[in-house]
Write a structure and sequence with these properties.
single chain, three-stranded antiparallel sheet, 7 strands, 62% strand
């Protein structure tokens, strides 16, 4: 099993194609994805995972033979938030 993380910004419902490569992802891959918000404690970088007021969801996960993992996320907030997705891939 491999564990990967990916940080991004977003809100609403959106799809992202994560290009892991054919050595990592194919249609037979088992992929679990989680999402959380990131905060910036005073004097620290913007990389502290936490559960904030926004609701964040992973709706769909689809690995492809091209090495790309397609994921549909939803962030229930009215402006862009920093998030981190964690991937467990087998």
């Amino acid at each position: 099993m491999q564990v990967w993380t990916w940080d991004g910004w977003g809100w609403g419902t959106f799809d992202i194609a994560f290009p892991f490569g054919t050595q990592v992802i194919n249609r037979h891959s088992h992929c679990v994805v989680s999402i959380c918000e990131l905060a910036q404690p005073q004097g620290q970088p913007l990389d502290f995972p936490f559960i904030g007021a926004a609701t964040m969801r992973v709706h769909n996960v689809a690995p492809g033979d091209d090495g790309v993992l397609h994921v549909r996320f939803e962030i229930d907030w009215n402006s862009a938030l920093q998030w981190r997705a964690t991937f467990f891939i087998d």
